[in-house]
């Protein structure tokens, strides 16, 4: 768990509340062990917090602050975002219809959680005209050459020479 806070005045009360809540858990020893790797990070502003969180790309991101809706619009890397004080992670896991299988370890920078879309087969189609290939052919050949893919380059070159 990483807790990012922009107000130093609330850090102590959060740490105190975590200790209180731990004592109420039947598996408190397991929870304490999990929290050993947790961090509280104090930042100078909410903008800095969002920048840090987007870089961290958390599996679960809970925006528990007054302007959570506005901040949510700035999130670009997270597995699932929980907006506001009434949106705990447990609701996303069990009841709100979102996903419980999410990217971990920063993979939210490149991947989404598993969803119905993950099980949909997609096929892409492309059809160029002669003019279309003439318009983009040189760019395609340059990229293929840069990648060392001579056959790709020649596939375009030969078609352009035919005309």
Task: Characterise the protein shown here.
The chain is elongated. The strands form two sheets. A two-stranded parallel sheet has the order 1-2. The protein has 163 residues and is mainly alpha-helical. Helix 6 packs antiparallel against helix 7. It folds into two domains: 2-115, Nitrogenase molybdenum iron protein domain (Rossmann fold, 3-Layer(aba) Sandwich), CATH 3.40.50; 130-161, no CATH class. Helix 4 links the parallel strand 3 and strand 4. The chain contains seven helices and four strands; from the N terminus they run E-H-H-E-H-E-H-E-H-H-H.
What is the third-level CATH name, the topology of the largest domain?
A: Rossmann fold
Q: What helical percentage do the residues reach?
A: 40-55%
Strands, total number = 4
Radius of gyration: 24 Å
| Beta-strand content bin | 5-15%
Shape: elongated
What sequence of helices (H) and strands (E) makes up the elements?
EHHEHEHEHHH
Strand order of the largest sheet: 1-2
Give the CATH architecture of the largest domain. 3-Layer(aba) Sandwich
Report on the biggest sheet.
Answer: 2 strands, parallel
Give the class-level CATH name of the largest domain. Alpha Beta
Query: What is the tally of helical segments?
Result: 7
Distance between the termini: 62 Å
State the low-pLDDT regions, or none: none
Structural classification: mainly alpha
């Amino acid at each position: 768990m990483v807790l990012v806070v922009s107000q130093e005045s609330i850090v102590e009360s959060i740490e105190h509340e975590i200790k209180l809540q731990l004592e109420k858990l039947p598996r408190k020893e397991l929870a304490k062990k999990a929290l050993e790797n947790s961090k509280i990070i104090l930042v100078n502003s909410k903008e800095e917090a969002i920048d840090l969180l987007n870089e961290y790309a958390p599996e679960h991101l809970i925006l528990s602050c007054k302007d959570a809706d506005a901040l949510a619009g700035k999130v670009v890397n997270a597995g699932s975002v929980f907006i506001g004080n009434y949106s705990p992670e447990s609701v996303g896991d069990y009841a709100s219809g979102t996903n419980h299988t999410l990217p971990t370890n920063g993979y939210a920078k490149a991947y989404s959680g598993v969803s119905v879309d993950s099980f949909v087969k997609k096929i892409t189609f492309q059809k160029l005209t002669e003019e279309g290939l003439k318009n983009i052919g040189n760019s395609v050949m340059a990229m293929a050459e840069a990648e060392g893919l001579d056959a790709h380059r020649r596939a375009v070159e030969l078609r352009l020479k035919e005309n």
